[in-house]
């Protein structure tokens, strides 16, 4: 739990949520919940005031009455949505101890061995040093419990060869944005989900243009060297961000690895247009009209 309410999310950190209060906590023994969670039963708690704070989940309609939410990046089961108050999986809470179960449902489908689980013997790793050493060597790639500024999903390699951040995957990930017509004219980039301040909006790679290319003639390329002589084109939606003197994003460029990361400068609402202040606004010839407008 944080000062902002009760929080939770998936294993990789791509999907995060916040809620106002918890309702009834149950475990469901039905076969659908066993399948949906991959467990012996489905643990769920009613989530009042549920809001998605990063990307929303993907959905699978398991019947004509119910849809189940899960992370599209790592697969973590997250919700049970039957048309009333949505329930979240208890284990996806940052603090599951807040939601001890108070009721079981569909006991007729309970697996025969469930009642005896607590009586099973415990493995003593102290007596198995090789196994203990294996577990001690593991570096967790799981999103930590609680909200963090730039939590790594760590389920792949990001720009520059480092860990990916904020649930982003691979060298190119523009899954949090889409391109559409802009009130500024032409096309623009928009948030496909709510994006928190400091969160990665998009990450990608560039291709350097041939020596001698004149970037002053094209607004759709990036300055790609400190001496302003190298130019590059970017992946994803990167060339469609409009310029603003009050931007809500900024681009970090990595010349050494030919990659970039775009981050949110403030909280951004779903559907809001995303803008930069172009780094070469003050001196590139193709931006003369923008300078005049500003």
Structure description:
With 294 residues, the protein is mainly β. The protein has two domains: 6-115, Metal Binding Protein, Guanine Nucleotide Exchange Factor, Chain A (Beta Complex); 165-293, Beta Complex (Beta-clip-like). The chain has three helices and 21 strands. The chain has helices at 31-37, 129-136, 288-293; strands at residues 6-9, 16-19, 21-28, 42-48, 51-52, 58-61, 67-70, 77-81, 87-89, 103-105, 152-157, 163-165, 177-181, 187-191, 200-208, 222-223, 231-234, 242-243, 249-254, 259-264, 273-276. It has a seven-stranded mixed sheet with strand order 6-7-8-9-4-3-10. It has a five-stranded antiparallel sheet with strand order 16-17-15-20-19, with no helix packed on it. The protein has a four-stranded mixed sheet with strand order 13-14-21-18, with no helix packed on it. The longest helix is centred in the middle third of the chain and has 8 residues, at 129-136. The chain starts with 5 loop residues before the first strand and ends with a helix. 33% of the residues are buried. The model is unreliable at 149-164 (pLDDT under 50).
Helix content: under 10%
Structure classification: mainly beta
The Cα radius of gyration reads 24 Å
* H and E string: EEEHEEEEEEEHEEEEEEEEEEEH
The first-level CATH class name of the largest domain: Mainly Beta
In what range is the share of β-strand residues? Answer: 25-35%
SS field, number of helical segments: 3
- For the secondary structure, the number of strands is 21
CATH topology of the largest domain: Beta-clip-like
Order of strands across the main sheet: 6-7-8-9-4-3-10
Show unreliable segments. 149-164
CATH superfamily of the largest domain: SET domain
